[in-house]
Amino acid sequence: MNDIRTLTTSELQQRLDRDSGLHLVNVQTDQFFNGELIPGSRRAPLDSLTQGLASVPKDAVIVTYCAGPTCTQGEEAARQLLGLGYTNVRSYLDGLEGWKAAGNEIVKPEPLPAA
Question: Where in the sequence is the domain holding 32, given as residue range(s)?
Answer without folding.
Answer: 5-101
